């Protein structure tokens, strides 16, 4: 499986940006990626005041490359960039070596 991480810095973002990002994910971003072809899963991670990122796991190289190409072209205008006020500081490919599902199972939700 092929991974991609997109990270924004929150160091210079406003105090309310964490709440805005959580609402954006719950209200629109989660639905956009749910059921997306070529995507195994996406997670959204955040350390308020430090960084916000999307972690994607794709079925293969072609799916990741196409998404990465399209995203990178529009990164400054991406919803996350607009909310934060700056483009991503990192767009990084990786290989996903393994995924384990724990006893409590996997739970997909637009907000935790």
Report on this model:
With 112 residues, the protein is α+β, with helices and mostly antiparallel strands. It has a single domain, classed as Alpha-Beta Plaits, CATH 3.30.70. Helix content is 33%, strand content 28%. The protein has 3 helices and 4 strands, in the order βαββααβ. The chain has a 4-stranded antiparallel β-sheet. The mean pLDDT is 95.
Question: How would you summarize what this structure contains?
Answer:
This protein is an alpha+beta fold and 112 residues long.
Reconstruct the topology from this structure.
Layout: E1 2-9, H1 17-33, E2 39-47, E3 51-58, H2 61-74, H3 79-84, E4 90-95
Antiparallel strand pairs: 1-3, 1-4, 2-3
CA radius of gyration is 14 Å
Helical residues, percent? 25-40%
The total count of helices amounts to: 3
What general form does the structure show?
globular
Which architecture name does CATH use?
2-Layer Sandwich
> Mean pLDDT, rounded to whole units?
95
What is the number of strand segments? 4
Largest beta sheet: strand ordering:
2-3-1-4
SSE string, helix = H, strand = E? EHEEHHE
Q: Termini, distance in Å?
A: 26 Å
Give the uncertain stretches in residue-range form.
none
